[in-house]
Write a structure and sequence with these properties.
544 residues, mainly alpha, four-stranded mixed sheet, 66% helix
């Protein structure tokens, strides 16, 4: 049986694909309008907030691997009260805003590709068509992107790198000089207003139960994905600002990336970026409907992820898909790009602030440093305040959708709570994992018997947190099995499967077995190894 776990590269690709899902094509113009020549710095500011927040996500995902992701982490820290329940509704609404952003960008780029200029009526028609199409396909249970989603990530990144490489050689340095910078507050707001372009790295947390060696690979995937996207966004902003006069940005703010390709690639460049934007936003709509928005809806409906929950189809939640689609179309048709961007960025800043505070509260459990967790939480909240205050001063009408987002979601949760309460765990698998670890000593005898039946000359050691008596920080039962003969990787995988089966363990029970040769025993020292003995005799006491 092949190992179906995903690796570091695949997990990183999920994060990159989640972020570069269409947002950069839609919101670049807003940042340039606010930050002008400092647009690359604005993207860097937003990226640093995302990077600090990814630290909290990495720590929480390692300790509490769950398909519930964001809301599971908040629930672990603050319990099933009103605020976590409201934050789940806010997260769901923020995903709707993201969907409307993708649909808006699809309509904008699609309209200029078809007619060569903006056509409001055609843009609205395309918005309705693209959302309705992917809603219908999801209702059929078909994820049409499937494996092609990974290919799309590569195509999007290559197109952006191609655009940046050619455009970098043609930039006008004068447009990037500090003399072209607006006041610092405008630069900061330019980054915060498009913070939702970094939304998507949190999707890596949903792979925590499926990734190989999550203790190491999850943090690496988070940091690598965010750092790579910061580089891409700053480079794209640099090229766009350096190649496009400001009055052209004002004219083409809804499709500025395609317009920025025209000076050095001509009409072909305009079309190439336009096609990339249409493909990116379309696939992002499909992936968001199919993935994270679906999870948030199921949690809102049931208070937890039901056991019938499957990644393949909505499973009895078709009405949720239709509701999300209708609300997405309404938002995309009712608000302009700035309204959508402010609301989405504000929603994610609030949710990410609470994830950072969750990590701060659970620092002892997650083995996290409190400093980055506190910086992330306070930074997200202050950023939300700056975004609101600056928008209130410069363009109050852009807060209309944000006001609806915050107020309506809280009111909805207040009313709906009379019918549904959150469960203690969002993901029932995590509940069973924690119960398994709480009673790990009860399982040890069965596991040791299983080891003894397959490997009679084995020495067995308890490792890491449980060996040190630190149950709160343990995310697995880790055993080292020392054998006289060195096993091949395939023999190790087969051996662990046999032990699990013999011990009657489920696939999600958090048992990890590391097979060692006597000459590799030095590996045990940093893992606080504690030799385990059976009831009547030590396992392998006479083994070499």
């Amino acid at each position: 049986m092949a190992d179906k776990k995903i690796g570091l590269l695949e997990a990183t690709s999920i994060g990159i694909g989640g972020m570069i899902g269409g947002g950069i094509f839609a919101v670049l113009g807003l940042t340039v309008l606010l930050a002008r020549g400092a647009a690359p710095l604005a993207f860097l500011v937003a990226g640093l907030i995302a990077l600090v927040t990814s630290y909290s996500y990495a720590k929480l995902a390692v300790r509490f691997p769950s398909e519930g992701g964001t809301i599971e982490f908040i629930l672990r820290a603050f319990g099933p009260g009103l605020i976590p329940a409201w934050l789940n509704i806010l997260l769901l609404a923020s995903y709707i805003i993201m969907l409307s952003l993708y649909a808006y960008a699809f309509g904008s780029y699609g309209a200029v590709l078809l007619k060569g200029t903006e056509d409001p009526l055609l843009k609205k028609a395309l918005i309705i068509i693209v959302v309705s199409t992917f809603t219908f396909l999801n209702l059929l249970g078909a994820l049409i992107v499937g494996r092609a989603e990974d290919i799309m990530v590569v195509i999007k990144v290559l197109i952006l790198l191609f655009f940046s490489a050619l455009g970098f050689m043609n930039i006008d340095p004068n447009r990037l000089m500090p003399s072209e910078y607006p006041p610092p507050l405008h630069i900061l707001t330019g980054g915060l207003i498009i913070f939702l372009a970094y939304e998507g790295f949190e999707l890596i947390a949903n792979t925590a139960t499926e990734i190989r060696d999550p203790d190491q690979n999850l943090p690496r995937a988070f940091y690598a994905a965010v750092l790579f996207v910061i580089f891409i966004y700053a480079l794209v902003a640099l090229v766009a600002v350096g190649n496009l006069p400001f009055d052209e940005v004002v004219r083409a703010k809804d499709y500025v990336l395609a317009e920025a390709a025209r000076p050095f690639l001509g009409q072909a460049g305009f079309v190439l970026i336009g096609i990339a934007a249409v493909l990116s936003t379309a696939s992002a709509i499909n992936a968001t409907l199919y993935g994270t928005a679906r999870i948030s809806y199921l949690v809102a409906k049931y208070g937890e992820l039901p056991r019938i929950f499957s990644r393949r189809i909505w499973k009895g939640a078709y009405e949720g898909l239709i509701i999300l689609a209708v609300l997405t179309i309404m938002a995309a048709l009712s608000f302009d790009l700035e309204n959508i961007s402010v609301a989405g960025s504000l929603g994610f800043l609030v949710v990410f602030a609470m994830v950072n505070f969750a990590n701060l509260k659970l620092a002892k459990v997650t083995s996290a440093s409190r400093i980055p967790a506190a910086i992330g939480g306070i930074g997200c909240l202050l950023s939300a305040v700056v975004l609101v205050v600056h928008t209130l001063k410069t363009n109050p009408s852009s807060l209309k959708s944000a006001t609806i987002l915050i107020g309506a979601t809280f009111l909805f949760e207040m009313v709906f709570r009379t019918r549904r309460r959150f469960s203690e765990f969002v993901d029932w698998r995590l509940r069973e994992k924690e119960a398994f670890l709480d009673r790990y000593e009860d399982h040890l005898k069965t596991i040791l018997e299983a080891i003894g039946s397959h490997f009679r000359e084995a020495e067995v050691y308890l490792l890491d947190e449980l060996a040190r008596g630190e149950r709160e920080g343990a995310n697995k039962l880790h055993l080292a099995v020392v054998l006289p003969r060195k096993l091949s990787p395939e023999e190790k995988r087969r051996g662990e499967r046999k032990i699990r089966t013999s011990a009657g363990l489920k696939s999600h029970h958090p048992l990890k077995i590391t097979f060692l040769h006597p000459q590799e025993k030095e590996w045990l020292a940093p893992h606080s190894a504690k030799k385990i003995r059976e009831v009547n005799r030590p396992l392998g006491a006479d083994s070499p």
